[in-house]
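[Meeting: bench + compute handoff]

Bench side (C.D.) handed over the final construct sequence. Compute side (W.E.) agreed to return the predicted structure before the next meeting so the bench team could plan truncations. Sequence as handed over:
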Amino acid sequence: MTNGKFIVFEGINGCGKGTQLELITKFLYDLDPKRKHTHVIRTREPNELDENGLNARKALKESKDPYEGARACVGYFAMNRVTHNNILIRPSLEIKNTFVLSDRYWHSNFAFQHAQGIPIEEIKEANKTSTVPDLTIIYDLPVSVANDRLARRDGSERRKFDSNSDFMEKVRENYRRLSEHLVGFDNSIVVVDANRSIEEVYKATKNVIQRKILQLD
C-alpha cells in the first residue's frame, strides 16, 4: 500500500466499535513491526476542530428528547465534517502508507437523523463535498444487547438517543440498510455481526480489512 486509506468504524452505542478500533490500530502497526513506514491516525466525530463540532456535542448532551434538534444536528455534523476533512483527513491521506481510522462519520447522520425524520437525500446534499471512506465497518448488534452493555459500562446514565429503545431500533435498521440507501454515494459499507465475543468480532474485522484494504486473501 502506498496511498492513504480511510476506514470508518460505525454502529449504535454499545456495539463495540471503540474496542475494535483499538485492536485494529495494533494490527495495522504490527504489519510494520519497527513502525518506520506505517502511520495510523485515529480520529472521531463529532470533534473539537471547530465550533460546529462543539455545538454538536452540546446538543447531544443537553437534550434528552431523541427527536429534538434533528435539522440543526445535520448542519452541525456536516459543517464539522468539512473542517475534519480539510484539517485532518485529506492531508493525512496524502501521506504514503497511512491509515486514517475514524470513530463515526457521516453514517451516523444517516442512521440517527433519518430516524429523527430527515430525508436521506437532504443528508446526502449536506455531505456531498466530504471524502468517501475506503471502507466502513458497521457493527450490528440488537438494541437489547447494546443496552445491557451500556448498563454495565455507564450504570443508569443514558445519552440523548440511548434512553429510547424504540428510537434506537429505527437507528439500527437504518444502519442495516445504509448500503441500500447510499448506492452510488458511498459503496464502502460492510456489516459485521457484533453479537459475538470480542475475539470473534476482531477476527471478522481483520478479515474484512485484509480483503478490502490490504487485498490479502
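W.E. noted at the follow-up: Residues 5-212 form a domain with the Rossmann fold fold (CATH 3.40.50.300). C.D. will use this when planning the next construct.
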